[in-house]
Amino acid sequence: MWPTIAVVPFLLFAALIDPERSPASVLSRTPTSFGHVQVDAADVAAAIVEGEAAHVTARTVLGLADVRFDIVEAQDSPRRFGERSSEGVPTYVWPFRQSADGRSQPPPAYLLRHEIGHDLFIRYLVPSTGSSQYGGDAPDWLDEMAAIAFEGEPLRSLRRRSIVHVAQEGKLIPLHRFLNMVHPEMAAGSIPDTDGRLGAAFDPASDETASFYAMAAAFYEFLVARTENAAIIADLAAVVRRGEPVEPWLLARTGYADAARGIDALDRDFQNWIASGAGYGGPSGQRATRTNEPCSR
Ligand SMILES: [Zn+2]
Nearest CA to 270 among 205, 221, 211, 201? Predict the structure, then answer.
């Protein structure tokens, strides 16, 4: 079975943290271009890579000029993910460190920027005013797209191979439904209510989860290609904040405002783009191997 990767916020990290760990050592606080990292010496480089990537993407994709945050070892912090520090800066706690007895493995550090993307999007672009919903008040696909836009290699290449597979299996979700659906894991009841902790990777409970994530990734790159606007997500967030419907705006921006059944025409364009080789379904994409999968589930 094609490996799926799905990254959601708001799952408990409790299972990843050894409750019988020895008392924490005092970690040094390292200044960075985005704020600080406070992790084990062996994890400083990985934390800075994630933080710098998120800092750049926040500017280029979300339009946040110089967002400030700290990255802290979860085992040494009582804070929840995104909780503000005493200095008022969002703190992203992440379990870089392996548990002392080796019973649990920390999640790959490269998933951190996805979770930072979720938090920044909800914090600054489309906050949540309700409960029992996925992410903020934005449509669920847009919440997920914003986080996926923060991902680097190798997740990006995995997503690209995934959409080719989803298309070949005939499991693309019709665009009209994709733009209006509840996150499949939320619909399946597999995402617990938020308590500010979060998890990284999980085994999907819904058959549609792989398609949902692959489509969120592909539709983002499709929209950037069609609009030549890398900050299309920031513009979409502004549409949501104004309380305007997203679908007509998307049709207008992609040239389908006057088309009969415009959403179906946009859907066909999207499917053809996946199959055309414009970064996804062409010969090189079809020959993509499955080696070096970052996620072995
Ligand atoms: Zn996510």
Answer: 221
Q: What is the ipTM of this complex?
A: 0.99
Task: Give CA–CA dist 109/40, Å, rounded.
Answer: 13
Whether residues 91 and 166 share a domain: the answer is: no
Say how many domains are in the chain: 2
Whether 3 is in a domain gets the answer no
Whether 232 and 277 map to the same domain: the answer is yes
The helix/strand count (H/E) of the chain reads as 11, 4
Same domain, 142 and 280: yes
Residues, beta carbon < 5 Å, ion ligand 1 = 7, 147
Nearest to 91 by CA among 115, 58, 126, 108: 115
Ligand 1 centre distance from Cα of residue 8 (Å) = 4
Sheet of 69-73, strands arranged across: 30-31, 35-38, 69-73, 91-94
- Give the Å distance between the CA of 287 and the centre of ligand 1: 27
- Chunked mean pLDDT (size 10), the chain, 297 residues: 37 40 70 97 97 98 97 94 95 91 85 96 91 83 96 91 94 96 86 52 81 96 95 97 95 91 95 81 40 26
Residue 61 belongs to what domain range? 14-118
Residues 149 and 276 in one domain: yes
b/e string for 53-65 if b means 16 or more Cβ within 10 A?
Answer: bbbebbeebbbbe
